[in-house]
Amino acid sequence: MARNEGTIDRALRVIVGIVLIVMALRGMYTPWTWIGVVPLLTGVVGMCPLYSLLGVNTCKVR
To answer: What confidence score (pLDDT) does residue 62 get?
Structure first.
């Protein structure tokens, strides 16, 4: 798997994922809270399947 997310992109995904999961654990349920797992995992791994399908690459290092 080739990385296709840059550093800022990955950091934002991890932060958003953690915030959404914490919201879910604290009882603030919205349709988006448990979806926070997706940006968290893609941010940690550094590869977004949707970016691959669309041909997007925010990673500067090849």
So the answer is: 65
Q: How many domains does the chain have?
A: 1
Q: Which residues contact 11 (CB under 8 A, 6 or more apart)?
A: 43
pLDDT, tens digit, 9 for 90 and up, residues 4-25: 999 999 999 999 999 999 998 9
DSSP state of 27: T
- Nearest by Cα to 13 from 4, 1, 25, 24: 4
Give residue 22's domain range: 7-54
Residue 62 placed within a domain = no
